[in-house]
């Protein structure tokens, strides 16, 4: 908007002084025919100046056509085009209207940061969502507090409380950790005989041993050694991914032990002891014996 020449400024000031009653804003306009400076009314939001005022006629305002808008009182010759286009990660927050441009916001699952829509982060296993992400804020994670766990990487799951084995009338086989639930069993008097050649335990007790071994709270390195020692030399398995997470490794180990149990009935105990020795894990072997030794 260029400043009008000084006589017009003077006129405008005079008019402003004369009546605050005139709440409609005005603008200076030079009549093309007479060359005379006039003071025309502006047009309200949603309209534009279709025809400026004349000596004896007021300003004619026209409604903005579709996909166009004016947000303020104006003396524009045409409405502005709604030029905001929502991006791939955005959705329309407010459609284009006669008085405003289109507005966009980040789609669900994304939040706005420095003008970009970024995906809400997932909380890794062992951590849960403390506050879900919003259109303006990323997901807030917290390490699972004692008594709770989260097994998955998720942007929505909170930490879940551990199963209460006692309340279920069962014994705790593996205490819960931030990464997995408590594992209960009703295997009470385990036959240590299972660890001798040819002996089979009950299904429940075999499951209990598998859970107990797979979810031991031992170092990742030891878990890997045990997992490798359990690979049947006769079978070709793909080598484990180099940087496999603990949770994934434990699931794989669990799977391996269950397969072993299915494939060769009665061989679980013996095979397990062999593997524990090959992996040089005497401590784990001892705790298995202690844990499952029937009360004398
Ligand atoms: C588990 O349940 C038992 C019996 O219902 C209760 O006494 C105990 O406090 C519970 N433990 C936890 C950790 O909630
Ligand atoms: C132990 O649980 C299994 C199922 O998980 C069930 O079939 C079995 O009867 C239970 N045994 C006892 C003694 O409760």
UniProtKB/TrEMBL annotation:
Localization of this protein: Secreted
Entry keyword set: Apoptosis, Disulfide bond, Glycoprotein, Repeat, Secreted, Signal
Classification via CDD domains: TNFRSF6B
Domain named TNFR-Cys: residues: 63-104
Disulfide bonds: 64-79, 86-104
Protein origin, superkingdom: Eukaryota
Keyword Amino-acid biosynthesis: no
Pfam family, one: TNFR_c6
Main localization (coarse): secreted
Gene Ontology BP term (one): apoptotic process
Gene Ontology cellular component annotations, sorted alphabetically: extracellular region
Positions of TNFR-Cys repeats: 63-104
Signal peptide (UniProt feature, chain positions): 1-22
PANTHER family found in the cross-reference section: TUMOR NECROSIS FACTOR RECEPTOR SUPERFAMILY MEMBER (PTHR23097), TUMOR NECROSIS FACTOR RECEPTOR SUPERFAMILY MEMBER 6B (PTHR23097:SF116)
Protein name (database record): TNF receptor superfamily member 6b
Species for this entry: Capra hircus
């Amino acid at each position: 908007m260029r400043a009008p020449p000084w006589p017009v400024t003077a006129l405008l000031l005079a008019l402003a002084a004369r009546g605050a009653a005139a709440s409609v804003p005005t603008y200076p306009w030079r009549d093309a025919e007479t060359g005379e400076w006039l003071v025309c009314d502006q047009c309200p939001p949603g309209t534009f100046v279709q025809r400026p005022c004349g000596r004896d006629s007021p300003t004619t305002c026209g409604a903005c056509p579709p996909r166009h808008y004016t947000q303020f009182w104006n003396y524009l010759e045409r409405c502005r085009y709604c030029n905001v286009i929502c991006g791939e990660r955005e959705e329309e927050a407010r459609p284009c209207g006669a008085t405003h441009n289109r507005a966009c916001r980040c789609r669900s699952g994304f939040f706005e940061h420095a003008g970009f829509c970024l995906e809400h982060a997932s909380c890794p296993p062992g951590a849960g969502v403390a506050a879900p992400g919003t259109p303006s804020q990323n997901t807030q994670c917290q390490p699972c507090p004692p008594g709770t766990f989260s097994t998955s990487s998720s942007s929505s799951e909170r930490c879940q409380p551990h199963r209460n084995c006692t309340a279920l009338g069962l014994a705790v086989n593996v205490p819960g950790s931030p990464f997995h639930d408590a594992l209960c069993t009703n295997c009470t008097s385990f036959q240590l005989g299972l660890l001798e050649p040819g002996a089979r335990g009950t299904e429940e007790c075999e499951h209990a041993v598998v859970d107990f071994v797979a979810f031991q709270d031992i170092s990742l390195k030891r878990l890997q050694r045990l997992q490798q020692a359990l690979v049947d030399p006769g079978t070709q398995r793909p080598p484990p991914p180099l940087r496999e997470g603990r949770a994934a490794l434990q699931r794989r180990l669990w799977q391996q032990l269950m397969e072993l149990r299915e494939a060769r009935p009665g061989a679980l105990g013996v095979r397990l002891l062999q593997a524990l020795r090959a992996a040089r894990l005497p401590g784990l072997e001892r705790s298995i014996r202690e844990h499952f030794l029937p009360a004398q």
